[in-house]
């Protein structure tokens, strides 16, 4: 059980990693104030980085090495977090700060603004899914994961989150399917590899 729990936790490390969510150096908002953000005119104009992402995903799928594939994965995260909006970048940066300090109500308010202002920005939904997971609100996390995957079906972070939640609610065969999907996209993902091995062994044992 400890091994499986370690795998589950490791799959979420990238979500809170500064490398994964490289933002501009923007100070967090004052502790006692809310942040009324006026949306810029291009809030719904999500950056078209599809060609860059296609190239990176092709590279990720072909790379069997953990170290170099991790570098590619980080580049993909940087593309995912490129909102194209100064206001969205600010909201996301503040939300990350709030999440890291477990100010979940503040983070949720900020991320609610993100998904309203820029509903086509997949990473806003994924970040809010992560927040709901941290609060153990799995049903709302799953809803945001679903939206993330509609917008970006290759989102291995969201798929990892789906797999983790399926394990937490004892739907281990569904978890295994989700981990397989992660490995189809990101074959060198160590957390997914370890999770698949552990789950395959556990499920094989339960069938004998």
What do these coordinates show?
This protein is mainly alpha-helical. It has a domain at 2-12 and 84-207: Alpha Horseshoe (Serine Threonine Protein Phosphatase 5, Tetratricopeptide repeat), CATH 1.25.40.10. It is 66% helix and 0% strand. It is built from ten helices and no strands. The chain has helices spanning 2-10, 50-62, 66-80, 86-100, 104-117, 122-134, 138-151, 156-168, 172-185, 190-207. The longest helix is centred in the last third of the chain and has 18 residues, at 190-207.
Strand content: under 5%
Helix percentage: 55-70%
| Overall morphology | globular
By secondary-structure content and strand pairing, the structural class works out as mainly alpha
What is the name of the CATH topology of the domain at 2-12 and 84-207?
Serine Threonine Protein Phosphatase 5, Tetratricopeptide repeat
**Which radius of gyration do the C-alpha atoms yield?**
17 Å
Q: Please tell me the overall pLDDT.
A: 84
* CATH structural architecture of the domain at 2-12 and 84-207: Alpha Horseshoe
End-to-end distance: 19 Å
**Tally of contiguous helical segments:** 10
The CATH homologous superfamily of the domain at 2-12 and 84-207 is termed Tetratricopeptide repeat domain
> In this structure, how is the largest beta sheet organized?
none
Task: Write a compact overview of the structure shown.
The chain has 208 residues and is mainly alpha-helical.
